[in-house]
Amino acid sequence: QVQLEESGGGLVHATDIHKLSCKGFGSATNVLSIGWYRQTPGSERELVASVEDTGEIIYADYAKGRFALAREKGDLTVVLIMGRPEPWDTAVYYCMVRTTSATYWGQGIQVTVVS
């Protein structure tokens, strides 16, 4: 069982460099992927960025060149650096850990970007 604790939500100015942190607690074996998703009202949850068990980092097209994902090796901790956020990045951001047996989600944190 894994519990995910997210932090860093709130009001963000478009000129800021903002960080979202996710720390996982508990035991997780065979982790396939860990990363961040986001969701806006009326839309499906979508990938922001994730790091796979191969070490590959996958970014959504809108995140490429603006956001950066980093994971502490061997730990269920992942950080999303939001560089040049835009108002349309406003969403609830969710941390996710996927193993061979289950997918775990954080509760989600609101990020509101203002220009």
Spell out the blueprint of helices and strands.
Blueprint: E1 2-7, E2 10-13, E3 17-26, E4 31-39, E5 46-52, E6 57-59, E7 67-71, E8 77-83, E9 91-99, E10 103-105, E11 109-114
Parallel strand pairs: 2-11
Antiparallel strand pairs: 1-3, 3-8, 4-5, 4-9, 5-6, 7-8, 9-10, 9-11
Helix content estimate: under 10%
SSE order:
EEEEEEEEEEE
Oligomeric state of shown chains? single chain
Strand percentage lies at over 45%
Compute the number of strand runs. 11
For the terminal residues, how far apart are their CA atoms? 40 Å
Secondary-structure content class: mainly beta
Fold and architecture overview:
- With 115 residues, this protein is an all-beta fold.
- It contains no helices and eleven strands.
- The protein has strands at 2-7, 10-13, 17-26, 31-39, 46-52, 57-59, 67-71, 77-83, 91-99, 103-105, 109-114.
- The strands form two sheets. Strands 2, 4, 5, 6, 9, 10 and 11 form a seven-stranded mixed β-sheet that branches.
- The N and C termini lie far apart (40 Å).
Core attributes:
60% strand; 4-stranded antiparallel β-sheet; mainly beta; 115 residues; 7-stranded mixed β-sheet
Summarize the model shown.
It is built from no helices and 11 strands.
